[in-house]
Amino acid sequence: MVYIPSRDLSDYQYSGYENRFATQQKPTSVSAFSTLDAKYNYKLRASLGLYVGVNNLFDYNQGSEGSSPLLFDDEGGYDVTYIYAPLRGWLIYAGFDWAF
Q1: Of the segments 6-10, 17-21, 30-34, 93-97, which one has the largest average pLDDT value?
Q2: I need a surface site. Which of 35, 52, 61, 84 has the fewest CB within 10 A?
Q3: How far apart are the first and last CA of the chain?
Q4: In this structure, are residues 76 and 23 in contact, taking their beta carbons and an 8 Å threshold?
Q5: What is the phi/psi pair of residue 64, to 5°?
């Protein structure tokens, strides 16, 4: 589990707007969040094992829970610089370990 506390993004020079018309300021105070990763290993033999896992089990991501990563400046220019949380949801994976 990774826990990120709430914080003031203005400490990191985050400032800008939600849209190109500079009508709505981006929030600079963001809430705390956490992500959880899990992995299970199963040993078939001494030299062979299987595993399955998931990253970001609770599917937390900035786009659905917070604000878009797009940041507009005073002139309407934009950049993808407003990133304070994961941008992708959960990820499931599987594989094997083979020692030879």
Answers
A1: 93-97
A2: 52
A3: 32
A4: no
A5: -90, -25
Listed as own residue / partner, the contacts of 52-57 with beta carbons closer than 8 Å and 24 or more positions apart are: 52/92, 52/93, 52/94, 53/92, 53/93, 53/94, 54/90, 54/91, 54/92, 54/93, 55/90, 55/91, 55/93, 56/86, 56/88, 56/89, 56/90, 56/91, 57/90
Taking residue 60's Cβ as centre, other Cβ atoms within 10 Å add up to: 17
Burial of 28 (0-12, 13-18, 19+ CB in 10 A): middle
What is the tens place of the pLDDT at every residue in 28-49?
Answer: 899 999 999 999 999 999 999 9
